[in-house]
Design a protein that fits this description.
Layout (H helix, E strand, L loop, with lengths): L2 H14 L3 H12 L11 H16 L5 H12 L2
Length: 77
């Protein structure tokens, strides 16, 4: 798919949506010029990030491979 085709498809999808959150997300993505730029999180997001970091520090996590193995065992029952 060419760049021109991709631009056309993106413009069509954007034009077809009325989802304001999606449009804002696309706008933010397209305006991010530097991956090192800081971004703002709300209080709930900050709390979630903090809890996640604490869980990692305390070892309260499961590796993806272990989770996959557990799911496969559960499915095969």
């Amino acid at each position: 798919m060419s760049t021109k085709d991709l631009k056309y498809l993106l413009i069509s999808k954007i034009d077809d949506t009325d989802d304001e959150q999606l449009l804002k997300a696309i706008y933010t993505l397209l305006n991010s010029t530097n991956p090192q730029d800081n971004f703002t999180v709300n209080e709930a997001q900050a709390t979630s990030i903090y809890k996640g970091k604490k869980d990692i520090e305390l070892g309260n996590y499961i590796l993806n491979e272990d989770l996959h193995n557990d799911v496969m065992k559960w499915i095969s029952k």
